Structures are given as structure tokens and as C-alpha cells.
Amino acid sequence: MTEQDWLAGQFEHNREHLQAVAYSMLGTVGEAQDAVQEAWLRLGRSDPGAIGWLTTVVGRISLDMLRARKARREVYPGSWLPEPLVDDGAADGPEHEAVLADTVGMALLVVLETLSPAERLSFVLHDVFAVPFDDVARIMDRTPDSARQLASRARRRVQAAPQPDRDVARQRRVVDAFLAAARGGDFDALLRVLDPDVVFRMDLGPASRLAHRPIVGAGAVASQVLATAPRFAHLAQPVLVNGEAGALFGPRDKPIAVIGFTIANGRIAALNLIADTDKLRHLTIQP
């Protein structure tokens, strides 16, 4: 085996982990793949002992990409939401459970979008992937104390957001009740499953003329749901969205939209609807 073959094998062994790091930083599969590919190109020009260095390289590349797209995001219509990862939930066993455990939930990704690039890097690398602050600091040319403070600020923002219930079966019961109420046009039943301060975000894509700001409050959200439910509710299929109960609308090979739900204390605290065709084009649906 040549040195290049060994490097390629080690890189492939670490690819899923690197992809998870990049996706947590960037929120889209395509950009995450680009970041991982760039890390491979940099590895090819580095010392063969640098495999352990790859996570920080992916972090640095992702940080640069976040900074570059920040200005573009400021003029995005409506809500910019992460690209969803979808699983039909049929698989079982320890390997499948491990994959779900490594998936960053939609609720967390939405909060991460509110952070500065440096805060996001510090939190994701340290709190999610256990990268030491010394390494995080080197990526940003800061001190470890500075990286620690950035992560602390990010952590407070994350902890202030609704904390999702971890029981997926319980999540599914709430989502099923929501879909049944939507199909039946039952306003009162919707109110029973919605948190009073529920937030409904919609990402319809950068060219949509229908985009608007998030809808807040159970009454307003229920009214919005019932305004569109007759056309789309019958198309809903139960799926896991980033490891949590969600729904896919339309055929699985060409979906119309995906909704991720944040279920907190047995009620829906947030609905995140992604109907941007670019974000659904690379949809990952595990069989």
C-alpha cells in the first residue's frame, strides 16, 4: 500500500464524522460536502500524520464559508432554514441508533443560525464534537479563553431556546395529533397541541414572493395551518427530520416540502417548513 492509498483509506474512515462537523457548521449538505472535499485537498499537501488534524481543518474551512455567505443571508426573504436530513424511521438496531445520535437536530441548527460564525465554531467544535479549546482557538487566531467565552455565549443562547423532548415516540404522537387536526380542519384540536408561544418559520427559497416573517402564537399559527391544510395535509407522510419527528409532503423521490417539529413539554414549540427546491434536491432519505 502506498502512502497515498493509506491516506485515502484513513480519510474515508473519517468522512462521515467530517461531514457531520461541516453540516453542523453550515446547515446544508452540499456546502458540507464541499468543505470535506477541500479538507481532502489540503490533507494531500500535508504531513501523513495529519489525519487527526482534519476536524479542525473542516472547522476552519466552514468558518470561512460562513463568513462569506453572511452578507447574502441578510437579504434572504422570509426565514433561512437548514437543509433537512430525512429518515423514514423504519430501520432499527444499534447502528441506526448511532447514526441518529450523531445527527444535529433541526431545533439546534435553527439556534445556531442566530450565532456569529465564531460563536458557532466554538460551540459546535467544543460542545458537540469535543475539540479542545486550544485547537478551536488556533483556528480563529484567538486565545483559548476567548474561544471559551464564545462557546459560553453560544451555550446560553442554545439553553434559552425550547429544549426538545427526547422520546421520539412521544414526539410522533404529538405530530400525528397535529396532522389529524390539520386534516380535519379542527382549530381547537390544533390549539391543544401547539405551545402558546409556538413559532412557525417557512423557507420557500430565495426567489419566492410568498415569503414572510415567522408567525408567532398558537392562534395565528393554527389559522395559517388551516388556510393551507386542505391542499397539502393529505400528502403528509411521517418521517424523522434530523432525528426528530417530522413530516414529508408529496412523493419521497420529489417532495414538495418537509416540516421539522420541535416538541417541548408535550407540545409543538416550533414548526420549521422547508419548501426550497434546492434544499430538497439533495434530500437524504434513508431506506
Largest sheet: 8 strands, mixed
Helical content stands at 40-55%
Structural class comes to alpha+beta
Average pLDDT: 87
Instruction: Tell me what portion of residues adopts beta-strand conformation.
Output: 15-25%
CATH class of the largest domain: Mainly Alpha
Task: List how many beta strands DSSP finds.
Answer: 8
Q: For the record, what is the CATH homologous superfamily label of the largest domain?
A: PhyR, sigma-like (SL) domain
Which CATH architecture of the largest domain would you pick? Up-down Bundle
Low-confidence stretches: 92-100
Q: Which shape, going by the Cα principal axes?
A: globular
In what order do the strands lie side by side in the largest sheet? 3-2-7-6-5-4-1-8
CATH topology tier name of the largest domain: Butyryl-CoA Dehydrogenase, subunit A, domain 3
State Rg: 20 Å
| N/C terminus separation | 35 Å
Description:
The protein has 287 residues and is an alpha+beta fold. It has two domains: 3-77 and 111-160, Up-down Bundle (Butyryl-CoA Dehydrogenase, subunit A, domain 3); 168-286, Nuclear Transport Factor 2, Chain: A (Roll), CATH 3.10.450. Helices cover 55% and strands 16% of the residues. The chain contains twelve helices and eight strands. It has an eight-stranded mixed β-sheet. Helix 1 runs parallel beside helix 3. The longest helix has 24 residues, at 3-26. The model is unreliable at 92-100 (pLDDT under 50).
